[in-house]
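Sample A.
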Amino acid sequence: MRAALDIFRQEAHAEADAILRWWSENAPDPRGGFYGEIDASGQPVPTASRAAILNARMLWFFSAAGETASARRAADYLRAHLFDTQQGGVFWSVDATGAPLDTKKQAYAQAFTLYGFAEYYATTHDPTALATARALRDLIETRFWDGARGGYIEALTRDWAAVIDPRLSDKDMDAPKTMNTHLHVLEAYTRLHQVAPDAASETALRRATQVFIDRFMGSDGHLRLFFDMDWTDRTHAVSYGHDIEASWLLWEAAETLDDPALIARARPHVLALARATLEQGVLDHGGIAYERGFDGRLDADGEWWGQAEGLVGFVNAFQMTGEKAYADAALRLWARIKSDYGAAQGREWTWYAHDAKRPPQALLSLWKCPYHNGRAMLELVKRLG
């Protein structure tokens, strides 16, 4: 097993370099920032809009990979076009010229921008990056925290009023509190507390961790996904990719706080998520299914991001328990990603596996960037070293 994991680490290191190279060469727009879309054939779409989360994730990845020139390009574009200088926070999107397009304030976008600037600070030691990250943390705590019922509100208008449609995408339920946003607030707060710990970062991370465990962990080893303001559960499916992603991000948050009681509380939830994904979400070919509805319907065509998160989640569970089944699952999943998602071929991964009965999807878009697969490779190099 050790030999197999050593080879896995070497391949992950090579893949991290390949992902960095592809995105460094193909994503920058000569007009500034990054393209908003590169289609499935590899052609840029210059008229595509630009999203805050795309640029924030670019900022995070290039910073984490040590590519400071590209990271600076992302930081500069965010500051110039996506920050609302009048009302605060970041817009959801701008058009191809950088003019505001969708001006609502998603907590998800604020969190990812915080995450990007925290990583940029870790790489560059730029004090303005740290100030930006901390200001976004304070904004999330002030504007999005529901003081009456707890939890973070999904979205608000540009001027911080209630919004009619808070959804991140057409795939999401129209719900004011979601697991996905809470998970990435948790992730952003974890990284900020790692790179610049202070009393405020500890308080915010502890609150985010506790509410995640209290509200989103189901008794069946799966996450609860959508809620009303009063925490009425509206979840309708199991999301295997989010289950395995949350398993390692929740564990990282608990370990970052270094609180034995919180670690003891988080551990069974973390392992329940990993075990349920292993037993229910992994298909015969080793890949991870997208989701299963409560009506029993299975969407077996896993998207690239869930496969990437599965690699880290299974390795994390193996490190926590020593159970060989998790290491085997990670190795089988990596083989599937190489054979059917285009990994280890010097280019960006495809959205779906080659055998999925789905039309080709963009290589770069609002939701497609090097955050999931790039982060997975960087994590594997670190964890298997």
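Sample B.
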Amino acid sequence: MNHKFLGIAVVAGLVIAGTAAEARDQIRVVGSSTVFPYSQAAAEQFARKSGQKAPVVESTGTGGGMKIFCQGIGPQHPDLTGASRAMKKSEWELCSKNGVTNISEALIGYDGLTIAVSRKGEALDLTRKQIFQALSAEIPVNGKWVANPNMKWSDIDAKLPDMKIQVFGPPPTSGTRDAFVDLAMHAGCKAFPEAKSLSKADMKSKCSRMRQDGLFIEAGENDNLIVQRLESDATAYGIFGYSFLYENQDKLVGLKVEGVTPTFDTIGDNSYTISRPLYFYVKNDHRNVIAGLQDFVAEYVSEDAMGDGGYFNERGMVPLPEAKRKEVRASLIEAKQMPMF
């Protein structure tokens, strides 16, 4: 095709996309179930302050949100996605393939990955090795990797309760699942001498797969459903972000991991070993065509939201240090583009 006509076609396409985008009168947010309550809180504050419609916030999981976010530019695609881990290279490649390259990334705070139980249940103190022994599809026994034989907690250690292992957790599309595998399962796996001789590929296979014999139950992307299951069964345990434990601390208690209870302080200083950063991503190409998007981004990274005692903090997020918050805020307001992988 003639380069002149090709250029005209591209410009025309952008104009059409921009005009159609202006027709959408609500901001769209997708992504992590852990980041969902913070996005929802920012949406409510934005609507209250601006008088505009509250953004539509969907809990799709981190992986699901990235897939939707990276489909393209225009009104049929969301403006922001929340994530309980950083964007992966494969997700960046999908975005790039679909023309979504002008993206800003924001680290918004920290969250602990908690294992919780009803206040009527037994609050355990587990090592990451014991967590791996409870939840992995395979574990080493007498020097060989075998299907996980542990049916009760006491099978792992006689000091643990003589009670069936039953743990509800997130699906593979969840950033919470990704982070839990990385921070808890991999660390627990490496505690076994047998893990040292594994190749990189075998390490990923042996140390990442959750058991599928009914003792680990995938509960979908709605963490509130896990909370409800724990309320109804005091012998069950559940995995989710600290914010959900914090919001339900009248009903649930968090398990200690290697002797440390999940709290704002222990997550913030990393003494609680299964903690992770939280992010959101925004399409800069949508800022000037989706009504209110720039103001919503400013609200999301405001001191009222992200600061010490801010409404994210009130919902369980551990704030960034003040200097880091200022850096993130400036970067987002200026629509600084994240670097390519």
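B remarks: The mean pLDDT is 90. The two ends are 31 Å apart (CA to CA).
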